[in-house]
Design brief:
The mean pLDDT is 91. This protein is α/β, with parallel strands linked by helices. The protein is 34% helix and 28% strand. It has ten helices and ten strands. It has a single domain (8-238), classed as 3-Layer(aba) Sandwich (Rossmann fold), CATH 3.40.50. Bound molecules: adenosine-5'-triphosphate (ATP). Adenosine-5'-triphosphate (ATP) binds at residues 19, 22, 24, 42, 44-50. It comes from Craurococcus roseus.
């Protein structure tokens, strides 16, 4: 599938996945271009999380292809895909609660790919200023939203070129949602391509250039988030409850 614009970093074609006998994805097509933020939208149970997991190899694809930076990684083990430079931040937080913010970041450090400026805790603190203020704090003493930011920051310590973010705004207080949006935009500013799953159109519009709307395991609509704002019939069909 051609996405137009910049070079395609991640290309997903006809992706199928199932949990046992329950088929969930029926051929998902999407592309993420270099340096863009794209939103994967859809109602609860539409298949957003399953799409991200199937891309990452956490759920084995039963059909279709996942190509990352020109390499067919379909069904590879997740750690191998991550090593190629595709980061993944699940909905549930993955941090060490007994470690401080700074220590959690250090634990995430990975050797970098050729020619990339490596992330350091100091560089990350400029993207996540709220984490800078609590660098010596144990993660167990942080709010859920702060832990979510730390999870993202720790993923960046692995120097990914693209990141999959599963529902980054879910369950966060409005002020933290704003900080999260700023952090996503700063990631984009650093040249990292981001594919995030999202139910909330206002968050998606704030951060994403384009949106894919998924329902019953297939993409039903693709367009800019600005277009989605005015296409009420699409929102009513696939987004509003
Ligand atoms: N481990 C699992 N075993 C069986 N079915 C599952 C499993 N995980 C998810 N499902 C089912 O797959 C479908 C898609 O779920 P998925 O989590 O991908 O949706 P989603 O769009 O991310 O929604 P949500 O916003 O609720 O996370 C749902 O019907 C869900 O019940």
């Amino acid at each position: 599938m051609s996405a137009g614009g910049g070079a395609v970093v991640l290309s997903v074609e006809g992706l199928r996945a199932a949990y046992g006998r329950a088929q969930i994805l029926f051929g998902v097509d999407l592309a993420l271009r270099r340096g863009e933020v794209a939103a994967l939208m859809g109602r609860n149970g539409a298949g957003k999380t399953t799409t991200l997991k199937a891309v990452m190899g956490l759920v084995p694809p039963t059909g279709g292809t996942v190509v990352f930076e020109g390499r067919d990684v379909t069904g590879w083990e997740p750690f191998r895909i991550a090593r190629l430079g595709l980061g993944y931040v699940p909905e549930e937080r993955r941090i060490f609660t007994d470690l401080t913010v700074f220590e959690n970041l250090e634990v995430g450090r990975r050797p970098l790919a050729d020619g990339q400026a490596p992330w350091t805790p100091e560089r990350l603190f400029s993207i996540f200023p709220n984490l800078a203020e609590m660098r010596a704090r144990r993660a167990s003493a942080m709010s859920g939203g702060e832990q979510q930011m730390l999870t993202i920051a720790r993923t960046l310590m692995g120097n990914p070129r693209a990141v999959l973010l599963d529902e980054p705004s879910e369950g966060l207080a409005p002020v933290i949602v704003e900080q999260m949006a700023e952090a996503v935009l700063r990631m984009k500013g650093e040249g990292i391509a981001v594919l995030l799953s999202e139910q909330n159109l206002s968050f998606a519009s704030a951060v994403a250039d384009r949106a894919y709307v998924i329902e019953k395991g297939a993409v039903r609509y693709e367009g800019t988030t600005a277009e989605l704002e005015v296409r009420s019939e699409v929102r009513e069909a696939y987004l509003t409850v």
